[in-house]
Write a structure and sequence with these properties.
Elements (H helix, E strand, L loop, with lengths): L1 E6 L6 H17 L4 E3 L27 H13 L2 E11 L2 E9 L5 E6 L5 E2 L2 E2 H4 L10 E3 L2 E5 L8 H9 L4 E6 L2 E3 L4 H22 L3 E5 L1 E4 L9 E4 L3 E3 L5 E4 L6 E6 L4 H8 L2 H4 L16
Parallel strand pairs: 1-2, 2-3, 9-10, 10-12
Antiparallel strand pairs: 1-17, 3-4, 4-5, 6-7, 8-9, 11-14, 12-15, 13-14, 15-16
Helix pairs in contact: 4-5
Length: 292
């Protein structure tokens, strides 16, 4: 199976961003991609650097304009596309939502981001209600996709539950980067931890991981920070954590990567983690903390 990854820089011009995305999707499809994955909140800038009620105007319903336009493109090209949208569910109720468009242009399913960060320059709790659809894979013509979003990628429980429900791969649309005042050593520690934890999800569950991050510098409108340098580094890991491709930090790129979906079966025979899990002793995982 061939998977296309699009790592892109965005500007304030949302129309231009979307046109560039659609052009890049065509490039990936032209290289044989059957599935194309886009970065988190791909239509515009990463607006969560500040808390501004006017930015809720960027949200859209699902179905809505993006699912319609990208759905038409999916149907034209005969591919599956993973979108990442700012969903307006109801007045005052918004989600960070991934939507999978089937190759016939219909919505195959959606996932609402479950883990919502609240850190300097990542004020997502101001904008997004935590997801309420659970960790449910989405069935498509190219397989059962375990779609999660960005901050979810740090949580092994989310990856495990997707795998336990039959996900054939994990997919993470992402927007993560560096603050310029961090030292180079600290920047590398952050990047390496991010890669390592996700490769660990591939190993622990015996399935591939596809991660697509944005790149480029985006300024902080408030001027309180120096903005975010998104670190790119989109990658695909196989079911033993092996890197099948790894993008650059600072360039826009389109790549198509071949994934052997049958390999997971063999890897799980070699490393039968699901067989040996002590499910009779894991009840503590449903608690916040165990030391009183």
């Amino acid at each position: 199976m061939k998977v296309g990854l699009i790592q892109q820089k965005n500007t304030e011009d949302r129309t231009a961003n979307i046109h560039k995305l659609q052009a890049n999707i065509r490039i990936a499809a032209g290289q044989g991609a059957e599935l194309v994955v886009l970065q988190e909140l791909h239509n515009g800038l990463y607006f969560c650097q500040t808390e501004n009620t006017e930015l809720f105007d960027q949200a859209e319903p699902i179905p809505g304009p993006s699912t319609e336009s990208f759905g038409k493109l999916a149907k034209e090209l005969g591919i599956v596309i993973v979108l990442s949208l700012f969903e307006r569910r109801a007045p005052g109720l918004y989600h960070n939502t991934a939507v999978v468009m089937e190759k016939d242009g219909t919505i195959a399913g959606k996932y609402r981001k479950m883990h919502i960060p609240d850190d300097p320059a990542y004020y997502e709790k101001f904008y997004f209600t935590p997801g309420d659809l659970g960790f449910e894979p989405i069935d498509t013509s190219v397989g059962r996709l375990g779609v999660l979003v960005c901050w979810d990628q740090w949580y092994p429980e989310a990856a495990r539950l997707m795998a336990m429900r039959g996900a054939e791969m994990l997919i993470y649309p992402t927007a993560i980067g560096w603050e310029s005042t961090d030292t180079e050593e600290e920047k590398m520690r952050q990047l390496n931890a991010w890669i390592t934890v996700q490769r660990g999800h591939a190993v622990a569950n015996g399935i591939p991981v596809v991660t697509v991050n944005r790149t480029g510098h985006e300024t902080d409108p408030s001027g309180q920070t120096n903005g975010i340098q998104f670190w790119g580094n989109s990658f695909v890991a196989g079911p033993q954590g092996e890197l099948l491709t790894e993008f650059t930090n600072d360039r826009e790129e389109v790549r198509v990567v071949e994934i052997d979906k049958q390999r997971s079966e063999q890897v799980r025979r070699w490393w039968p983690f699901f067989r040996d899990r002590r499910i009779d002793a894991f009840e503590g995982l449903t608690q916040r903390f165990l030391v009183k």
